[in-house]
Amino acid sequence: MKVYIETYGCQMNVSDSGKIVHLFANQDYQPTSDSRSADLIIINTCSVREKPELKLFSALGRYIPLKRQRPELVIAVGGCVAQQWGKKLLERCPGLDIVFGTHQLDSLPQLVAGVRRSQKPASSTDFLACPGGLEVMARPDPKAVNAMVTIMQGCDNFCSYCIVPYVRGREYSRPSSAIIEEVRKLAEAGIKEVMLLGQNVNSYGLKAPGEISFAELLGMVHEVEGIERIRFTTSHPKDMSDELISAFATLPKLCPSLHLPLQAGSDAVLKRMGRGYTAAVYLENVEKLRQVMPDVALTTDIIVGFPGESEADFQQTLMMLEKVGYDQIYSFKYSARPGTRAADYEDMIPDEEKRDRLARCQALQNKISQTLLLAQVGKVSEVLVTGPSKRGEGEWSGRTPESRIVNFPAPVSISTKVVAGDIYRVKIVEAFKHSLKGEVVA
Ligand code: 5AD
Ligand code: SF4
């Protein structure tokens, strides 16, 4: 049998889809990239931004008619939209077989088997004290050099614009022993770099009595032999402890790159967002980080056009982009999520204005990113090879510790073949829009 998975949204969803593939491989389902030949179609949805239902309904509009030729086809929808709609989604979409929530990942194979037996649709979206599926380990891709490891799930912050706490549930930290075991297995399978994942990683362990802190967890991951690089995402600026900042100084495998969502530069907007920090506190954290890692590469998330955001507020966001100097930003127009506090705020910003602010924000960032990439030319960096370059031409591709992409030709002087997982010292010779070009140095 064959399973086709379509994944929307964040890294957490990508990681969850990997686990689903693994679960179904144990049930003799092979993954396929062709939806028309699948016996099982799974759509893993995201509801964080912009019209998530439209995307789902249009996908279902394509897949449900396939049942005419393949009556045995089972269609399941999971992830955040499924969590929000629950069984109402079955009524709204006749032909859909399964709705499974964000805590039900591991029970999906049983749900599918049940639906095949009973020929009746089923839904399961209750929140559990311990979300199911966190202990499922995806089989690492034999060609992969890096892997994601979920360390916690859910969020208790309830930022006023955000749907995540409602669809992923309360913060749950996985036992550190299970995390370390997973990292060890990944290292044995040849993985060199791990990305520790969670909605709010730097509050790891805080609400689990007897559990270690996030900084301590990093220390334990650091000890796993074979792991050369450690990254994590997403951290919350209000939870940047001094202990975590100093971990960057003491753990050489911890990469000098950090995603630190700012969201907005105006204190008034940050307050209405419920973010729990001011622009000054954010800058202080950046300063402290740069003291221990002068070359740290920062990335961030920005929301423009939050309700009540004035032009002056927006200018504060632009100022923060200049002050911090991010390598990259992920910027979004505010989009009201039903059920969140901000959806009821007054002073919604017209879409045209949001579009204009987004364009100005991205134009400024493009300049900043370009300047930062150009400043790399002439420097020598350690590049972890991830595989052949997408540009072809016999080039290889990899990432610097700061996570910048570098393409480089295989060195003629070195007799051994370049393979993914190797680390080369590479001199940067050219900067493009989103990547660098380098040459291996002896
Ligand atoms: N509108 C726009 N962007 C949002 N994000 C979260 N919720 C919303 C929303 N309602 C963005 C934030 C967050 C990222 C994952 O998505 O910037 O950090
Ligand atoms: Fe959403 Fe805020 Fe939690 Fe991030 S910290 S997931 S933005 S509620």
Topology, please?
Blueprint: E1 2-7, H1 11-25, E2 30-31, E3 40-45, H2 52-63, E4 74-78, H3 79-85, H4 88-92, E5 98-100, H5 108-118, E6 122-124, E7 146-150, E8 152-153, H6 164-168, E9 172-173, H7 176-188, E10 193-197, H8 214-222, E11 229-233, H9 242-250, E12 257-259, H10 267-273, H11 279-292, E13 297-304, H12 311-324, E14 328-333, H13 351-374, E15 380-388, E16 395-399, E17 405-409, E18 423-431, E19 436-440
The protein binds 5'-deoxyadenosine and iron/sulfur cluster (SF4).
5'-deoxyadenosine binds next to strand 13.
Q: Segments where pLDDT lies below 50 for 5+ residues?
A: none
What is the 3D form?
globular
The distinct ligands, each listed once, are: 5'-deoxyadenosine, iron/sulfur cluster
Task: Give the C-level CATH assignment of the largest domain.
Answer: Alpha Beta
Major sheet: order of its strands?
Answer: 2-1-3-4-5-6
Q: Quickly give the CATH architecture of the largest domain.
A: 3-Layer(aba) Sandwich
Helix content range of the residues, please? Answer: 25-40%
The CATH superfamily title of the largest domain: Methylthiotransferase, N-terminal domain
Write down the CATH topology of the largest domain. Answer: Rossmann fold
Structural class: alpha/beta
Strand content: 15-25%
State the distance separating the first and last CA atoms. 50 Å
Number of strands: 19
Number of helices: 13
C-alpha-based Rg, rounded = 23 Å
Number of domains: 4
What does this protein structure show overall?
This protein has 442 residues and is α/β, with parallel strands linked by helices. The protein folds into 4 domains: 2-124, Rossmann fold (3-Layer(aba) Sandwich); 140-255, Transcription Regulator spoIIAA (2-Layer Sandwich), CATH 3.30.750; 259-375, Transcription Regulator spoIIAA, CATH 3.30.750; 380-440, Nucleic acid-binding proteins (OB fold (Dihydrolipoamide Acetyltransferase, E2P)), CATH 2.40.50.140. The chain has helices at 11-25, 52-63, 79-85, 88-92, 108-118, 164-168, 176-188, 214-222, 242-250, 267-273, 279-292, 311-324, 351-374; strands at residues 2-7, 30-31, 40-45, 74-78, 98-100, 122-124, 146-150, 152-153, 172-173, 193-197, 229-233, 257-259, 297-304, 328-333, 380-388, 395-399, 405-409, 423-431, 436-440. The strands form 5 sheets. The chain has a 6-stranded parallel β-sheet, sandwiched between helices. Strands 15-16-17-19-18 form a 5-stranded mixed β-barrel. Strands 7-10-11 form a 3-stranded parallel β-sheet, with helices on both faces. The radius of gyration is 23 Å and the shape is globular. The mean pLDDT is 95. Bound molecules: 5'-deoxyadenosine and iron/sulfur cluster (SF4). 5'-deoxyadenosine binds next to strand 13.
